[in-house]
Known about the structure:
The chain is of the alpha/beta class. The chain is about 30% helix and about 25% strand. It contains 9 helices and 12 strands. The protein has helices spanning about 15-35, 65-75, 100-105, 130-150, 190-210, 245, 265-285, 320-330, 335-340, and strands at about 5-10, 40-45, 50-60, 90-95, 95, 115-120, 155-170, 170-185, 220, 235-240, 290-295, 305-310. The strands form 3 sheets. Strands 2, 3, 4, 5 and 10 form a 5-stranded mixed sheet that branches. The chain has a 4-stranded mixed sheet with strand order 1-7-8-9, covered by helices on one side. Strands 6-11-12 form a 3-stranded antiparallel sheet. The longest helix has 19 residues, at about 15-35.
Amino acid sequence: MSKNLFTSESVCAGHPDKICDAISDALLDEILRQDPHGRGGIEAVAGADQISLFGEVKTTAKLDFKKTVFDLIEKLGYTEPKWGFSTESTFSNYLHEQSPEIAQGVDVDGAGDQGMMFGYACKETPELMPLPITLAHSLTKRIDEAREKGEVAWLRPDGKAQVTVEYEDGKPVRVVKVVAAVAHDEKTTPEQVRAGVIEAVITPVLKKYGFELPQDSDIVINGTGAWYIPGPESDAGLTGRKIVVDGYGGYARVGGGAFSGKDPSKVDRSGAYAARYIAKNIVAAGLAERCEVGLAYVIGQPKPLMQTIDTFGTATVSEEELHAFKDKLIDTSVKGIIEKLDLRRPIYSQTSAYGHFGKEDLPWEKVEKV
């Protein structure tokens, strides 16, 4: 019997990088709500008491950028100026119109950039996602829910979770380590934080997926002690910096680009979604136990230069049949992906926290009958 460990992490919606992802996607959604063919490559930077926008847009939409940004900051729970980041922070906007060199390729249904994308699926969870990242996302989502619903009154926005799973012969058998970090008020002791997080967050999440708590010494809460100041005052944030968190938690290969703030002409986003769609449908159809799909594009060209399917020896059909299945499922040209998955819609804000995959309402998560 072979044994190994695998660890994945997730971060809460109030983490500095996730604040920036949420801002970029909120602005993109507003563009697409008014102008389905609008384009954006929107980057946000959050630092000590300030937020700035950079990047490119091409759209007929009329946006109140500052209002959209501050409405989101308030929604995420940053309402206290004493935390060094709030709706009173300095705002600056350096967005500009899309480069004409890029636009001329996108105008003829070509890819908005070069790059390689990977999609993955496996049978470890009902979501057909790797177990470590699924558990990590569930923990951070539960941390945020406990704060937003007032179930744990001392929680402040921002937090992280990390899960280590033990595998035997490639199958997950137990959770051996859980790490969490949460921001909290000054009145709550480390002992109260630990007990509260274990009771309200870790225990119900592991129970949901059929796992027991690891031994007490293998649960680490706020490893450096107290944590009072959440968000960008403590650590600057940047759009797109959590690409491993956004994907498969390191369990599968990572493509070259981030997702948030990019319209679907950017194959960093749409290509990655198509690759997940193909991989998930292959596994859901019983054609493999696990599957990784690779796509690669060149700027201005409509079709991928590379299309690979790796089932790690678990396929139940031939490689030719897998590719035939893929071709029936979706046209992997940029236009084909956008039309099949109906991506010119304001659906992206829901991806900016807890990953882009494994959420059943998203179009690239739909299981088809082919």
